[in-house]
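User: I'm new to structure prediction. If I give you an amino acid sequence, what do you actually give back? Let's try with this one:
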Amino acid sequence: MRTIAALAIACAAAGLLSAQVLNKSAIAAGTKKVNPKDGLTYVWIPPGKFQMGCSPGDAECYDNERPAHEVAITRGFWLGRTPVTQEAYRRVTGQDPSNRKGANLPVEFVDWDEARAYCAAVGGRLPTEAEWEYAARAGSSNVRYGNLDEIAWHSGNSGDQTHEPGQKLANAFGLYDMLGNVWQWVADWFGAYESGPQSDPSGPPSGQYKEPRGGSWGSASRLVRASYRGWVEPGHRGGKLGLRCVGGVAFPPHERRSGGVGVIPECEENRWAEQFRYAGKISAFADGDRLKRSDRRCRPARIPESGRPWGLRQPPASRSLG
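Assistant: Good question. You get back a string of structure tokens that encode the predicted 3D arrangement of the chain. For your 322 residues, that looks like this:
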């Protein structure tokens, strides 16, 4: 508790504090553990309150980032210290769909169902949108938790490629690459924010789009903000799209249902189809993205929540990721 209190005092003195610890946690904020299933380090995020949505004084917010509203995260949770790496993804699934190869690079070209299945396979789940933003802000009410170039790989400094996580500065919770490098899937369906205080929101019960958060190596600075909300079809894959998982806590309401994904599907890999480009709408993402679609035939153990089985998907009429 002393560690949490010291962090809160330091952030408040800097004019950053928006999160408030709700109750005493037996685990200190920033405590780390290694998940033996994927070999990645997870960091303890304590419960607390924060202002979700458009940051005070941020002139670059889109309408879907409003209204800003108070959110209580009533249960602490473990969150991956970095995005999932290719080595970890291959260790769990036996596959690496990434275009830019490197064991310690973030995995990419993972759609929402595959991201959800991976997290389930390592004993966790995708974070809710509220959990993701709370963890990304780590007590900060600012647009970002630090100077853009010091904390994130983006279109202005990435050299048009992914980078090994952990080379930029961490936030106050000890999390790396929460902004930039690769987009990160969250559990929620995309929907308008509700006004007024909320506790542990998990988004609409259904919808057309899922949400990636955080921006990527190809994103303009406007997209690399703690409150920016991406929206894209669950079947979208791209070279800027990755994930990180929550572990060790109960699934949110929309995940507690029959037919949920609990295992990685058994797939027969045939070949990769040629890359192709979709143009995105500026209201969602900044530019076009080169996508890779798989011509694989899969036999999923269960139908994923999005309602479509893995494999043999039609190219998504989707927004592209900047």
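You can read the tokens as a compact description of the fold. Here is one thing that stands out. Residues 1-21, 249-320 have pLDDT under 50 and may be disordered.
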